[in-house]
Give the backbone structure.
Amino acid sequence: MLQRARTGRTFEMVLMVALVVTLLGAGSIAAADEMTKPFTGKAVNGGTVTVSKQGDKTMLSLSSDFQVPGSPDPHWQIVDSKDTVYLLDRLKLKDDRINTRIVLPAYVQDIAKVQMYCSWAEVVLGEAPFSKPIVANTK
């Protein structure tokens, strides 16, 4: 009888641990979205960028309060934790559309900050840093 009671308690303990692991795992999935601090710079002040995972892709999205700069050729630009700079897609598209959401290329491993960069004037218009580098893609 004593053996049966120990087995029952062990089973309950295993179930409890499984439940805790499951809940912690679900919490980490929900916390995957990260947001930058607001943009600051010469031409872009305000608005943020959110990083989210969709399947195996990492997405970058501008907040609704982001103001598009009036420069002739603004682009998304990423700086990683090693200060490597990646010039990405144009912000302004044909027919006055704005590229408010982009897929991060697989070769970018982490993101320290997001910049808006004018390719015509070759100047950073504003940047939005993360509080700590975000792991974007793993090989």
Notes: The helical segments are 2-30. The chain has two domains: 1-31, 34-135.
